Amino acid sequence: MALAQFPLKNMFIVAAWLETCLYGIYFSLFWFSVYINSRWTRNGHRPSQVMFVSSILMFVVATAHVAMSCYRMIRGYVDFRNAPGGPVSFLAVIPDWTHTFNDVLFTLQSLLGDAMAVYRCWILWNRDYRFVILPFCLLLVSLVSGAKVTTSVADASTFKFDTSLRIWITLFFSVAVAQNIITTTLMAVRLWLTEQKSMRFRMGSGAFLPVIRILVESAALYLFLEILLLVFSALNYNVQYILQDAMTPVIGITFGLIMVRIILRAQNQSSHGRARTIGSMALRRIVMDISIPIEDGPDPKMEYGRESENTGIDV
Questions:
Q1: Backbone phi, then psi, for 73, in 5-degree steps?
Q2: Where are the alpha helices (DSSP H) in the chain?
Q3: Where are the transmembrane segments (predicted)?
Q4: Tally of structural domains, the chain
Q5: What does the pLDDT look like over 232-260, one tens digit per residue?
Q6: Is residue 1 in some structural domain?
Q7: How far apart are CA 68 and CA 62, in angstroms?
Q8: Which domain holds residue 261?
Q9: Could you tell me if 222 and 184 are in contact, meaning their C-beta atoms sit under 8 angstroms apart?
Q10: Rg for the chain (alpha carbons), in Å?
Q11: 121: domain CATH number?
Q12: Non-local CB neighbours of 27 within 8 Å, separated by 6+ positions
């Protein structure tokens, strides 16, 4: 049995309300991240400039999206309240430039989030391109499908899209889910392998497990909403548009949570000693106790030096 569609006049206002609530969380989180980044910089550390600039771009996009959503609500529920069809007569007009603009912002935010996930993988794997080939290819697919969906939706007249357009929409959301799972897994695997190597050289254990937890926990909300969005899109259920508006601040929240939690952890650890890093992520100080036997054969120092380079730890 087909799902009963959510009334459009209710859908639009719920979408705006949810996006505004999530944007309020994102607004506070973003400015807190700016504050701790500035403190981190004053203490002599150099946070990743790519990550910081990307966080600013995400914030600008999310702010523009929520501002346009508020403008559309005012136009629909105030200016068109007495028009034939009510607020829906304006809000459901897909070719309107305000609707197209919001779609472009949503697509741009999704691509920014995916691009930063690929960048983090590249950094963690010591800038080895082999480990990001698949995520990068998926990013290109997202770019093409996102552009196709945005331009095609702008030409549509109603929310009842044809089969070919629905296939492109499903492809875009499917790739986003796959991208999230793959990049998060790659980062977690890299940190887990480094953890195993640190134990092998008696460098202590547990240094990287908290970072794995940060990555997985912070990405959980984003992945959960992506899966829901994919399911509702495949079912052609219009609740997907509520989730779509919510995704714009959620992507920023996910990115911001990872930045804030890692920097706070690094600050806490550096207060007890010099912070170490893997890629661009600061970690706690690691105490090393290495015994080097004197015997014939390869120089143990050289063997250790090569192994430590593979872990990506600054030693």
A1: -65, -40
A2: 8-42, 49-74, 88-91, 97-124, 133-155, 163-200, 209-234, 240-270, 300-311
A3: 12-32, 52-71, 129-147, 167-193, 214-235, 241-264
A4: 1
A5: 888 888 888 899 999 999 999 998 888 88
A6: no
A7: 10
A8: 8-311
A9: no
A10: 23
A11: 1.20.1070
A12: none
